[in-house]
Design brief:
31% of the residues lie in helices and 21% in strands. By secondary structure, the protein is an alpha/beta fold. The chain has a domain of 163 residues: TIM Barrel (Alpha-Beta Barrel), CATH 3.20.20. Strands 1, 2, 3, 4, 5, 6, 7, 8, 9 and 10 form a ten-stranded mixed beta sheet that branches. The N terminus is likely disordered.
Length: 248
Amino acid sequence: MTTPEPIAVGTTRGDDEFWLIVAECFGAEVPTFQGEGPSCGHPALFMRLSRCNLTCAKCDTKYTWDWSRFDQRKESTKRSVADLVAWAASSPVELVVITGGEPLIQQARLVPLVRGLLAAGKRVEFETNGTIAPAPELVVDGVRFNVSPKLASFGVKESRSLVPAALEAFAASERAAFKFVASTVGDLDRIAELADTHRLDPVWVMPEGTTAKAIIATTRVLADAVAARHWHFTTRLHVLAFADARGR
């Protein structure tokens, strides 16, 4: 995969530190929830950044990176840090979820954004695939990481999707939860290997699926085995509530 040139759309060009390539922001005008993981059910604002360093077959946000199927000029825009902070500050919702794509590709530019969000009284969660270690400036009070390492069953080579040094950096931060997408009980055995090898804790398991029917079916396949391992289990609330509608 080649990384496209940055897109000069939507805001005034400035120093690289002060803008980000964004796919979409939502949750202010039409309220929504964090749909997954430790904060599932909490009211949330979402900043979905564009671009990813993986090409997972089962990815449900391919419009952030798959330019064979999507027009990058329509699917991404430049937005300044000041604009993004002002957008979040306009809402009373406390939780801001920065997701992707893979947001930490742009983490040097995320440092001023996170500082602005924290100063505005927000708390921040990153949704990351766990291949890029977090910058020290992001490992601060008010910031958490939902780390979702991708297994081979998600349609990606683990030689690309599993980066031991990055996973161990997240574990050492003590600000991370490790959220694995699983389809079968066999996936849980692989998750256990990774958790033991890299000391990943806490472990959350999320059933794979983009429809309510699929999520319910996979939940029932996995539930007993997840409970037996004393792991956390999360649904995909946004799919159950909003049928995986974009921007919800």
